[in-house]
């Protein structure tokens, strides 16, 4: 930030008070019954900077269901384990369709457009599962999250996982369709078991912002931190977050916020400022394309005041 811009602490605190005044908070996801019970009048933000400071506001320590934000971490693990072979099963183009759409799969031989739409994430999860048991795969995902967030308390909310398992008929259809094409190699219910569990991980904004550090610092947990993944993988995941991380709202997010970002229907968004910061925001109300309404607004305010953008010098 330039010297004449306000201090990050002031900016974050102002955004937090501004968000408290917003009346239209969108609607909470209700297709996963357990998520419909969450109080929409909550907002949290946490920013981890290059010097390791954590600047936070609102409900930054309240755990929430990370849902599709988890797809960033399963993609990371799958790329680390399978490398380029992963792209035989999933593409890297934006879909321009809703996150749970099935329409392109039929026309494109069961290979999902990208790893962040539900079909693509289920295919990535199946690749990561490989020949292991679902319990082993979920344990590995949790271990990774605990390592990158440096927090052993991160866990799966079993009630949310069960709630989605009981109502996730669309995902069952996607998985079965991809199994028929050989994109999914395990029994669909096994891949879905892992998928519903990783979507149901609970994390706070602070934990999520800490977990995202390796994307901001070329695969390292901070400028001088340990190398978790090769820099090229971090670069590619950031590219996919920018182009596909908000589904059919990805263009609007790039236009308004200008950062790689990944949203979830629990209302969380992880956003990355390469070389500068890892940011997590959370507010449960969603806009019409399923991305956090206040979360997006808060990030727009934060980037306009800090100048943070992958499209500008800062
Ligand atoms: O599969 C689902 O529908 C959810 N577990 C995740 C979807 C999601 O978070 C989409 N994000 N905005």
What does this molecule look like?
- Helix content is 45%, strand content 11%.
- It has helices at 8-21, 70-82, 103-107, 118-129, 134-149, 158-167, 169-180, 188-199, 205-211, 213-216, 231-244, 250-256, 293-306, and strands at residues 44-49, 54-58, 64-65, 155-156, 201-203, 261-263, 268-273, 277-282.
- The protein has a 5-stranded antiparallel sheet with strand order 2-1-8-7-6, sandwiched between helices.
- Strand 6 and strand 7 form a beta hairpin.
- It starts with 7 loop residues before the first helix and ends in an 8-residue tail after the last helix.
- Helix 5 (134-149) crosses helix 9 and helix 7 packs across helix 8.
- It is globular, with a radius of gyration of 18 Å.
- The longest helix is centred in the middle third of the chain and has 16 residues, at 134-149.
- The protein folds into 2 domains: 8-67 and 204-306, Beta-lactamase; 70-199, Beta-lactamase (3-Layer(aba) Sandwich).
- It is of the alpha+beta class.
- The protein is built from 13 helices and 8 strands.
């Amino acid at each position: 930030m330039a010297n004449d811009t306000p201090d990050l602490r002031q900016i974050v605190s102002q955004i937090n008070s501004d968000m408290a005044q917003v009346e239209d908070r969108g609607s909470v996801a209700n297709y996963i019954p357990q998520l419909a019970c969450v109080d929409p009048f909550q907002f949290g933000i946490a920013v981890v900077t290059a010097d390791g400071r954590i600047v936070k506001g609102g409900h930054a320590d309240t755990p929430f269901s990370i849902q599709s934000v988890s797809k960033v971490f399963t993609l990371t693990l799958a790329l680390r384990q399978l490398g380029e072979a992963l792209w035989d099963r999933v593409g890297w183009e934006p879909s321009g369709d809703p996150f749970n759409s099935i329409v392109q799969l039929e026309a494109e031989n069961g290979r999902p457009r990208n790893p962040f739409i539900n079909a693509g994430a289920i295919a990535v999860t199946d690749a990561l599962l490989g020949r292991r048991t679902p319990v082993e795969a979920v344990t590995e995902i949790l271990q990774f999250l605990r390592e990158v967030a440096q927090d052993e308390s991160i866990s799966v909310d079993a009630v949310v996982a069960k709630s989605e398992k009981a109502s996730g008929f669309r995902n069952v259809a996607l998985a079965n369709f991809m199994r028929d094409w050989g994109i999914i190699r395990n029994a669909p219910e096994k891949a879905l078991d892992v998928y519903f569990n990783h979507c149901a991980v609970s994390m706070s904004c602070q934990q999520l912002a800490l977990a995202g550090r390796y994307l901001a610092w070329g695969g390292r947990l901070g400028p001088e931190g340990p190398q978790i993944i090769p820099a090229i993988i971090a670069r590619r995941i950031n590219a996919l977050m920018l182009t596909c991380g908000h589904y059919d709202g990805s263009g609007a997010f790039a236009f308004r916020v200008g950062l790689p970002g990944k949203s979830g229907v629990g209302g969380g968004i992880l956003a990355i400022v390469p070389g500068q910061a890892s940011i997590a925001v959370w507010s449960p109300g969603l806009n019409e394309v399923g991305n956090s309404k206040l979360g997006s607004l808060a990030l727009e305010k934060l980037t306009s005041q800090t100048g943070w953008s992958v499209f500008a010098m800062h």
